[in-house]
Design brief:
Blueprint: E1 22-26, H1 31-42, E2 46-51, H2 55-67, E3 72-76, H3 82-96, E4 101-104, H4 120-145, E5 152-156, H5 160-163, H6 169-189, E6 195-199, H7 208-212, H8 215-219, H9 233-244, E7 255-256
Amino acid sequence: MRPQPESIPERYHGSNKLAGRVALITGGDSGIGRAVAALFAREGADVAIAYLEERPDALETQRLVESEGRRCLLVRGDLGRKAACVKAVARVITEFGKLDIVVNNAAEQHEDADFEGLDESTLIATFRTNVFAMFFLTEAALPQLKKSKHAAIINTTSVTAYRGSPGLLAYSATKGAIVSFTRSLSQGLAEENVRVNAVAPGPIWTPLIPASFDAQKVAKFGSDTPMGRAGEPWEVATCFVYLASDDSSYMTGQVLHPNGGEIING
């Protein structure tokens, strides 16, 4: 990608907001997930990265985390399968002995402007990655999170969940499901002291963009926001830091909107 997405700027100074905590981040090999891993590490957390198959990308995220003096575990697997989620959590506990933060971030996106021509296998795959994996991993992690004094679940939804996107029907539907999941689960876990929140990014410059759209759309990506540009991954990752830290101790069931100025209702 040119330019390369910015995962962690030198001007970002950590302040030990997550010191001593352990986070499991899905889709952490690139894009927003990589930036979250890097900022979490700068804030003092050890990090486990769950990824599907892009090992070189995962190794780069690991390098960023370890350059901050923190440990990084790489966990490869298809989290759309329940057994893989159970295995991922077990590996985190074996490596770090605990789990404090889960970031459900892994996603796939496909253009599907022709509703009458939706491909069934692509539709199922999108929901399996974006929704089923979130259910499976959260279920597997909950027994461990309930042992933590700083338990936080943070889900990645999207601006498309609020304003829709005619060319991303399946993707937008999954992101709407994530909002409802976040709000519902937060109410069920409030008395357990497990906070559940979400982040709804607008147009962010990540590898998902050139992989999903043609060159003409990529060239104009983000230019229609009030700020006139796409956001960088680190500009979203700061929201995850806030929601994972004690700074947001009175927040659950909420969604933050780093989207370049678009006004969101709902």
